[in-house]
């Protein structure tokens, strides 16, 4: 199970990097239970050096409890360290687009205005991502038929939870 997860996370990391989304930190927090601790080395070997695998100590407070989450959750922070998304099951399955889209939104949106962490090339990358998403949406938009055709303009809404 963890091999599939780690492979998909690595694939997502590479995909986003190829789209220009760089300087993203990925961290896997291994569960505290004994079984997970015994499999730590396999988990660490299943991802590249670009993904950190953090092993919790049995004696420390559980990271997931501290973060009000569960072991299969994705917590997505912006570049200023603010939590933007907390995705739990089934939204954390990497076979769906929720994690990828949430990372893109956290990467591209300027929630607090002018940001000292933004780099000039990020604007171009984010415009390209938005343009591609709009083109995909236009492809699935229903075409008007008949005399009383009305053009309905679909607007994507991004809701933050």
TrEMBL record:
One of its GO terms (molecular function) is selenium binding. Keywords: Glycoprotein, Secreted, Selenocysteine, Signal. It holds the Pfam family SelP_N. Residues 141-161 are annotated as: Disordered. Its main location: secreted. It comes from the Eukaryota. One of its GO terms (cellular component) is extracellular region. Residues 3-161 form the Selenoprotein P N-terminal domain. One of its GO terms (biological process) is selenium compound metabolic process. It is found in: Secreted. Residues 148-161 have a biased composition (Basic residues). PANTHER family: SELENOPROTEIN P. This is Selenoprotein P.
